[in-house]
Amino acid sequence: MAYRAVLVASSALAVATCSVFADAASVAGTRPHVALVAVRPVAVVATGFHAGERVRVEVRRAGPNARRTVRAGEHGRLRMTFATMRISRCDAISIVAVGSSGRRAALHRRPAPACGMP
Length: 118
What we know:
Layout: H1 2-28, E1 33-39, E2 42-47, E3 54-60, E4 66-71, E5 78-82, E6 93-99, E7 104-109
């Protein structure tokens, strides 16, 4: 009976260890990504960061730039809105998200072709 208890306990420990390493590998193997999800006001979603990681997001354009720092959620995801910033399809923008671990994601959007080159 004691042998069976040891076997069950060691099996449970092995499963838990594999689960922890699988979670770490899935975060480590995921590259950060940033997306523009709204333009009036500007809203950004970033994924692929570590849970709880401090992430600085900067939106650059021809007018005033905006920057905020937030913590990624439980799954390494964050969403933020820049309430006073609005952009049009003719604005060239650059969005950069940099985590405290050094991981970074960037999005560069050119003006729509109908707008002509600035």
